[in-house]
């Protein structure tokens, strides 16, 4: 059902009051009904004397209901593993939301408004506490799983709110007690608000944990790791002892760690049926964190901006570019553009004023101050023993590989950039420095640092498609299972 538009005119408010009175008199039942089909291979119970009374008894037994839902369905749930090769059906992912909404709807149908309020409060508190118990990379799967389920619960509440605005409320001829419309209206409003807050909290919890982990990975993986065996370097400044130590000590993380985490996030978002707009937003935010953190680190390192190091970093970047391309999100590689252009700058010739003009043209995302810093940091390492043939081979790879294609205004051919390994002269540095304008707000050195703090969360739209009575056979929730059986036939 599509949600109704909110009414604001005086005439509509009068009509609303009339509908409220009509609803109280006629006890219109809320729209959502579970399907009248057998599920989970359970026995037919339609011959029971009064299944309605048994449902009421089961719903009023809050201790056993909470035990099944809060413990069996939330804390003790074995979450289906994310998989794109053999994905689970929608009902196999969203069954917690469906079951919680079924119980809520049935409570409202029988006028158990206070019970539903306590039930939903316990459910939301338990879900939030459960998700917050995970840290680091372990928070990704449960975070996204419950984010999708809470969003499904919210879509159910939105339908109830839409019905309420049309004068359709809870209750029926078998209701335990009469329904106070104002209490019901307040309950729906509060529950929707609380679900909004819960969804935002879940998103911030798992995204914060994910970004915190990526912050630790980004610099070792993109800047320090060296995956090309023919171009290993121990640069990094310091004396001979420090250079030898750097050569022996391997980075704490590699590009495989970064890509594995991106894969885990991607698979979870897709497997748990999150909206495309949110998938795009999350991947963009994570790539921005990787790009900004790595760029700022490279910019502030002295004696680290060498040709060999630039080759290694550029190769690391292309692995992320290829990952984005394989997932049809090539536009997100723009988050790594400054870092890519910094590695290009290191490899470009820097001997004359004309060379600096070319750098300005090729490195169009870098500010004059950033170009000045990169030229100052430029470090001529020991490259003896590398033949011209090898250099040409590298040039051909960098210019022709699909993952390394570089589109910028009139790019400088790489074959010219790799032939020069001279320190930047003081005269050229003066030219670069002269292009830095004092008090220019657009000329900055460091990009705004990315932290584990998460930006605003915009609730995506999701159309409510009805309630399923599916319960996985492995769940030990006999009380809840019995209640759902009765709902299926009455």
TrEMBL record:
Domain (Dilute): residue spans on this chain: 121-400
CDD domains in the cross-refs: fMyo2p_CBD (cd15480)
Superkingdom, natural source: Eukaryota
A molecular function (GO) term: GTPase binding
Pfam families reported in the protein's UniProt record: DIL
Coiled-coil annotated spans: none
Official protein name in the record: Myosin 5
High-level lineage: Eukaryota, Fungi, Dikarya, Basidiomycota, Agaricomycotina
